[in-house]
Amino acid sequence: MCLPPEKASELKQIIHNHLLKMDIHGKIREVLADTVKDDRGSAHRPLSEADFVHALQRRGIIDDVMKDLHFTQESATNNGAESPPKPAAHYGDQDGTHLRKTNLDPSRRYLYLQVLGGKAFLEHLQESEPLPGQVCSTFTLYLHFRNQRFRSKPVPCACEPDLKEGFLLEIHRDGVGDGSKMVDATTMLSMCDPVHLVLIKTDTSSETTLVSSYFLDWRTVLSSPSCKTCFAVELLGVGSESKIPAGVLTISLELFPPMPETLNTGIVSTQQSLERQRTAEKERLFLVYAKQWWREFLEIRPSHQSKLVKIFAQDENGVNRPVCSYVRVLRAGRLLESPRQAARFVSLLAHERAPVVGGGAKQEQWCTLMAFLCRGKGDCEDHATLLCSLLLGFGLDAYVCVGTKAKTGPHAWVLTRGTDGSITFWESLTAHRYLHRPIDPDAPPLAPQPKPSSPYRTVGCVFNHQTFLANCQPSDAVDLCVFDFQNPSRWKAMSEEAVKSVCAPGSTTSLPPLPPLCAPSLDPAEASNHLELEMRFLVSEHRKDLDLATVWDDQLSYLLSSALSAYEMERCTGVSCGNEEFQDAVRRAVPDGHTFKGFPIHFLHRNARRAFATCLRSPFCEEIVCCRGDHVRLAVRARVFVYPENACAVWMMFACKYRSVL
């Protein structure tokens, strides 16, 4: 194998750094001293190189060197066309006893981040250690760094949780064709991307809570001796508790391979200070512009003071950011195939308002995308900004609308504009779509007017990643609103340059990085089978309490699959199909003189007991589960449809057939 000169020098440097790290010279001196001592005691013959190599092998020194040194292997069928090397394999979950090995690409640099434990999580001070096998609340730590995402294994909640994990983060260049070059100190110093740490608590009923969201500047390792440093990170709470410490994590950072020379501490701190000053200046100028723009908007009409025009919003850390910064162009790769499937995925993330201690108004909290995805639930604004980002990725002209809903008050949803001028509303919580046709208030009294189809009452503003528009029409009622964004008499726009100065990717260091969506790790068939077996057990136990026997019809259970598949397809596409085949199959499976009853239901979770308790609240389902009669046969089918981030659409159908007796 022939290597180009630059690759050969890189390879030599990596091997040299690895040997230095192992303190190979010290080990060789020890072996040499022992070997010479043994030779003097036995025979006075000269020590050869072969004897010395044999002594190193006997001590296991050579094995240790080769065991820890890994290289990526190139494909043997190289067609001659030079292609950029693929990133080394990353791993998100680690088992403490069986760590997965990963190949290190010798042409790349890595940041090894170790979490060495937690302490001072005072909220769990009174919690005792869980007994073996006992179900308890857990902590899980999630990481995001430059398009790489990782997750720790869950550990029991405690005042000093046993969070001990290692994460290998690849540091690569951004330029086209630069991915194969090892980053140098200057390039790493200019990388302002933080490591985003998100700590999630999962309780015994699988409910998740966001504990902390922290942005770690890793560049202190560039000025540390041997490119290795260890320090404590104080995690703060979220929302109304964003100024209160939640706990402390001990974190170690190390560069692989280490740099020949580390940077001066002053250089790193000066770079960080300059970035903060630049960001503060951009944010100050945008705030000055936003205040002037708002004054002009109020001068148009005094009633504009009461319109829902949302320019800034607080994130989970209590930081005020322009709403446009919450929307980015997000491409899902192969994980989502269409805009409607994207809407279905977003609707499967649970809706939950930010928790408030005590009564009063709704807590204002827009989450960063990473925190929203890790938690798996959020408010309507989180859903709307995620759906808008995905629709922009699919090439649609999408905007987030802020206004009010008929029954729930303030609300956020998504709007798309077609090339023909058509306006479609997307409800991010349900994936429902509504075609908007405005009412013409100047039309003659007897002229036909379109009927309102959407549940939205008013709209104050619309925005996306580079546009912000406030509604300056005489009425902010959705039914009367004309979404002609090019007409300044209907919509007052902010300067796109001003919006981009603080919201474009890389414009400021305070802008949270955009995480990629994660492919699902759940096996849908296995999850479906497991849930269905649990439901069969619960139904049998329930009927046993009523002194009823339970006889299952496996064939009838299997036939229910096509109906559940059709229900999910209809939710995804809006088109109903396959119902005729299901009805025909049921008619064939139910003999003459027998009655068939079925009850489908949909869930966003996989907790069998919770689902069964919900089902029994329906009189239709209870009638099937508690069916009495002659020749009663029961059936149940569960289908788990898995989407990115392990979001699940769970469909179940309970059915029975029995002989009708008059």
TrEMBL record:
Compartments where found: Cytoplasm, Cytoskeleton, Microtubule organizing center, Centrosome, Centriole
Free-text function comment from the UniProt entry: Centrosomal protein involved in regulation of centriole duplication. Required to limit centriole duplication to once per cell cycle by preventing centriole reduplication.
Family to which the UniProt record says this protein belongs: Belongs to the CEP76 family.
Gene Ontology CC annotations of this record: centriole
Keywords of the record: Cytoplasm, Cytoskeleton
Residues in CEP76 N-terminal domain copies: 10-69
Keyword hit for Cytoplasm: yes
Xref: SUPFAM superfamilies: Cysteine proteinases (SSF54001)
Spans annotated as Disordered: 76-100
Domain Centrosomal protein of 76 kDa C-terminal intervals: 522-659
Domain CEP76/DRC7 peptidase-like intervals: 364-494
GO biological process, one term: regulation of centriole replication
InterPro entries documented for this protein: CEP76 (IPR052299), CEP76-C2 (IPR028926), CEP76_C (IPR056288), CEP76_N (IPR056289), CEPT76/DRC7_peptidase-like_dom (IPR056290), Papain-like_cys_pep_sf (IPR038765)
Gene3D superfamilies (UniProt xref): 3.10.620.30
Name of the molecule in the record: Centrosomal protein of 76 kDa
Keyword Cytoplasm: yes
Domain CEP76 C2, first and last residues per copy: 103-259
